[in-house]
Amino acid sequence: MTYVVTDNCIKCKYTDCVEVCPVDCFHEGPNFLAIDPEECIDCTLCEPECPAEAIFAEDDVPAGMENFIDLNAELSREWPVIVEIKDPPPDAKEWDGVPDKLQYLER
Q1: Which bin fits 40, alpha (ψ -120 to 50), beta or left (φ > 0)?
Q2: Fewest beta carbons less than 10 Å away: which of 3, 13, 16, 23?
Q3: pTM (2 d.p.)
């Protein structure tokens, strides 16, 4: 099993989760983070660190967000690894909790 970054990370992109990951499985895109399912060791450390509550165990991904399982796998192959915490976007708090943000995902 792996962990999955879901919809609420889009345009929030808090990186608190990156700092606690022992295997560097996070990958950074312009406005979203993705978890590489091949690297994730299911350690559970990232989930409680996410201020946007956007990370779920694969088996617990909310209904309607199952597409993020494949999306994380796809994007983690395309984007570079991120290992250090960065400042969130200036408007991250405004986007936190906004539903249906997939349309805003930048590749």
Answers
A1: beta
A2: 23
A3: 0.97
